[in-house]
Amino acid sequence: MTGDVDRFFVTLRIAALIGLCCLSLSACAPAVPGTTNDHQNVGENLAKLVQTDQSLDNMTLRLVNLQLPNLDGITELSRQFRLASQRLRQDMGLREADLLEAVNNYLQRVDLKLEILERIKFQAAILRNSLSYLPKAVESVQPEVDAQQQALMQAILVSVQQHNLLPSPRHRLELHQLLQDPALTALKHQEGGVNHILFHVHTNLAVRDRLDRLLAEYFEAAPAHELRTLHIAHAHYFERLADRTRLQNMELVGLVIALFIGLLLTLLHLRRANQLARSTFEKLRDAVESTTEGFALFDANNHLVLNNRRFGEHYPWLRDHLKPGVSWQTLEQLDSANAAESQGYLSRLSAHAGDDRQITCRLPDERWLQISQNRTQDGGRALIQVDISTAKHTEDQLRRLSRAVEQSPVGVTITDRRGQILYVNPHFEEITGFLAEEVMGRDPRFLTPGEASQKLNREIWRTIRSGKQWRGEMRNCRKDESTFWASVSISPVRDRSGNVREFVAVTEDITVRKETEEQLSLSAAVLAATTEAIAVTDEDNRIVMVNPAFTRITGYEANDVLGSNPSMLSSGRQTPAFYREMWQDLYASGHWENEIWNRRKDGEIYPEWLSLTLVRDKQGQPVNHIAVFSDISHRKEAEEKIRWQAQYDALTGLPNRYLFRDRLSRAVASAERSGLPFALLHIDLDRFKLVNDSFGHQLGDDLLAQAADRINRLLRATDTVARLGADEFAIILTDVESEKTAATVSDHLIRELSRAFSLETQQAFIGASIGISLYPADSDDPATLIRFADLALHRAKAAGRGVYCFYHPETDGYVGRRMQLEIELRSALDGNQFHLQFQPIVNAETGYMHGAECLLRWNHPKMGPISPATFIPLAEEGGLMPSIGLWVLQNACAQLARWREMALPPFYVSVNVSARQLNDPKMAPKHIERIMRAYGIPAKLLVLEITESVLIGNSDRIRQWIDGVRRLGIRISLDDFGTGYSSLAYLKRFPVSTLKIDRSFVKDLPDDPNDASLTEAILAIARSLKLNVIAEGVETPEQVEFLRRRGCPCLQGFHFSRPLDPDQLARFVTENTGRLADTTP
Amino acid sequence: MKPLSPLLFGTLLLLFCPPISAQAQTEERPSADQSPATTQIIVPVPQRHGQAPAKAALGKQLFNEPLLSPDRSASCATCHPVDSGGAKNRRSLPETQRRRVKLDIPSVINSRFNLSQSWDGRAPDLETQVDECLQPESQTAAGWPAIERRLRDNPEYLRAFHRVYGTEPRAEQVRDALASYQRTLISTNSPFDRWLRGENPHLDANAVAGYHLFLDYGCAACHNGINVGGNLYSYLGAYGDSFEGRGRKRPSDLGRFNVTGNPDDRFVFKVPGLRMASASAPYFHDGSAATLNEAIETMTFYQLGRKISAEDVRMLVAFIVSLAGEIPRDGQ
User: Fold this and answer.
1) Option in B8, B235, B304 nearest A255 (CB)
2) How sure is the predictor about B11, in pLDDT bands with cuts at 50, 70 and 90?
3) pTM score, two decimals?
4) Separation of alpha carbons A318 and B166, rounded Å
5) Angstrom distances, CA of residue A15 to CA of A12, A263, B300
6) Which residues of B touch A126 (CB under 8 A)?
7) Residue B22 shares a structural domain with residue B64
8) Sorting pLDDT into bands at 50, 70 and 90, what band is B211?
9) Looking at the partner chain, which of B8, B216, B221 has a beta carbon nearest the beta carbon of A125?
10) What is the pLDDT of residue B192?
11) Residues with Cβ < 8 Å from A580, sequence gap 6 or more?
């Protein structure tokens, strides 16, 4: 403080001194420097100007008297005069107005004078010109005139020269008289030189007069007067300037005096401030003395300025030396000397003399002192001792408590009143995964995200705000976002006045407990819900628990059986030895299960599947037995039923195909033994499908049952009737003596089955065809017998139905081959005999490949390649088409996927779909979609080709199918267009995108006019419906040309490529795609 | 504390300011009181031009600098080629430039000896003449702001101006440099001058005869001094109106009237110096005389009131030709 005041005074004093220096300097300096010099200059310049003016006047007089040989001199002098005059204006500078006016007046005069001078120069030149020229002129007229006239001319010349040399009225009169001379008058009338001379003489006279006038003007314009005025004005100005300077000097003296007074006042103020500082210091000392803290102040030189009594009390070993002025070093030495007691704290402070510092030390009497060393502004230091014994004690206490909290196995969180976290203990970090520094200041609600938790949080706050403790369980969130169950207890902490200051939350991770509980309740629920009966017995095999299913199965309530031995359930069906074995097994392996018969409460005996488990404690001692059993009486029945169903036809109760085969084998075996022949009859109900379609399956089934019944009634018990398929039956006729017997039975059967069947309110008529094979006449192999009977049946059907046929080896040969083929066809699919080929479809304009039609090929291992025209109809008849079609679609997609992996330019593949397939569930749009997905084929790369005739069939279902496929994004191409009877209406109705012109039309192009016009018509239709067109079977360049001319966009056929294997096609694509092909079909 | 009075403050300021040295700008100039200058009718051109070489060199560079013109197409030297008489025939200029030039182009050589510059004497000195030429209204130059900017943007000029003047290029310095250069353009040691000085006794007899005719016919009344003219204003036709013969009088024919506005100054022009006349055809303010012969015939007719003989004209021509001296090539 004192240092501050001192510095302030010193600064003031210096400022005042500087001020004084400036003052004295400025007082000494000339008030308006340079003015006198200026004045002198102007005076000199004016004098010089007067001189130049006079020189100019002199020169002008010489000019007028034609004494100047050239005009350079006068020109230069007038220039100097003008410049010197103009310089006056600069000299005067920005001075007073009257002075400026005087200068301007003067300069105007100068300008005027110089202008007149220029005219004088001009006139003088003319004058001189004429004077120079006159003698020559006079000389030149000599030949023209006589002597008298010549003399006159000479006289005039002399007179002119005299007049110009000494202009006087006398000379002028003389010249006039000469010019009036009558001789001259006479000459005037003559043309020539004389007149010329006279003209020059007159000019000379006129110019002379003009010069005289100009000279008068020139001297009149003399600026002497203005110069004088200027001089006087300048002198006045200078006087005024001097006056002003005197005034300024006086002002300065006044200012100096004022400054001195100011300085005195400042010194007075300084003195007062000093007194004030001293009294403040006294007050400070009193205040310091009265504080409970020890205080000592050292100045910048480390001398003690002030200390209070308390300071000494805390340091008895320094007490006697604490007097103002004592140095820090002295005290520090004393302190070190008493190091045992003082612990040398002054030295410790010394080490940090430059900073603010706080140290704590313990006094010998167990008291704690905190000593702060603070730097003062003037570089001294203040020491403040605070007795912190109590605080230290509390701190120790707290440390112990906090140790407890830190070590606590539960999470502890302390928040302020607003819920911001102030502290968490290490266990909290462990539980939650959050580090303490991450959660400081945050609201603990981040541990409980979610809607439900917010509600809970509100409830918690309500409780603890009202000062109550809250306990509960909640799900908390860890840092890694996993959750755990916590048991939380939150209680408010109050300060002394009873206000809630903080909240303490104790969190315990009870996840494990909670999970156990949940597990238990889950187990209980499972126990209750399971359909299997469960009973638990103790080590003495007394029932300790049963579940509801137990009650359901056995009929005993839990109360009835608890504490009882499970033997009470025994039915007595098992022997004691069985039970002995059971217990042995159980104790040996820990587990036993078997079927067992027990008795219900109501006495009913039932089968159960019993599973026993032995539960051992940790020491391996058996503690419980768990019996789990289910009532398997229903299962037993079901097993029985299944066995029957496997062999019999559910509808008719007749043996099915499998049992029939078995029976047939047995029949063959028995016939071999007995040597008795038998016949195999294969019956097919005619028109049954029609009945089924028109009356529905229900009645169809009814009819079949009746038919079976009728067949059965006609046969003996030894004969076997079986149902082979939908409307097919087979009969083994034993003891057939001759073909006739079989024929008779067949006749009866046909007749019987041709009678009306009453189906509810209606009557239905069917018929039957029968094929017959004989044992051993035809074959002794059961399978062959079946096949021969089947062939004979085919012939019977072909013969017009309602008849029976015996197997005939020659006639049935063809059918046999077909059938053989059909059989082969079935195995071809499994035997990997099919493969696919692809025929490119190209852009008619560019020749680039757009897509390829997928074609099925069958390569028979023995028969070689078989034409699709042969096997496709067979497949359709044999109902194989759906499977084959599916195979084709899957393999086409798989191939497409492989091509896509090869990163070929994209092209589409069109797959033929037959009419039969459309009705098949395997070809439902959702299945197609699944296949596409499986191979990752985009829908735009797949085209399905259907034949035109399909559209004419079941239009609603077709439409649904087409719509479904189109929705997937797959395009539909209409194959064989033009061969069917489809109308425009069909095309409009079904959303197909492409028409394929059948090869039969293309074949005779362009020669056949019908085909040509038909093709053109198709193209026109396609254009108007905005459909794409592909012409099939293009083989010649002429066809290509024709089709291209007619605007057919796409072509397919041998001209471009035969159907290709996949790798060949890949090559074709690379060679025939100049750019990314447009994939529009 | 009482605030310092402004007066005291000002005084204090003055105390600490360095004294402003009055730099006297001295320029050497042929003295008017030299004896030959005042005693001879025709005075030889002085041997020295007395210009500071650095300024003159910078001026020369500027004189040849197309950057000063609006489209950077033409320099001073375009109209005033120093090597060929210091004045171009107006008619030989390209069309675009000719349109900007109203009068016959006067020679820059020896122009320093003229009492003023330009036909009507509108520029009292060369500096003012530079100003006249470089004004944007003149259409021959880009105007001072543009010129200053262009020169500042040119590192070479920036350096040169700092070296010569210690400042960046400004109008005042450009004017000074150009004027300084033009003051170096004097034609020294002409055959006639050397004859006058007694160094060339074998001057062409025709020239000598022409000189005498020049005096006898009174030509020297106007054409005298160092520049053989250029030191007064005069009618074109002291004894006859030379404009009478013309159909139309243009404003530029009014001559000095355009400067002073004084009716007496109509048709008054500065008398042109004849030093470089032989090299700076055509003649008169409007360039109406294509050859020196024609100019002499016209001049003598209007000044004397009659024709002189062809013989006389020939001799006068020889005299005028002998007036032309050497032009310092490098401005030294």
Assistant:
1) B8
2) very low
3) 0.43
4) 76
5) 5, 10, 87
6) 221, 234, 238
7) no
8) very high
9) B221
10) 92
11) none
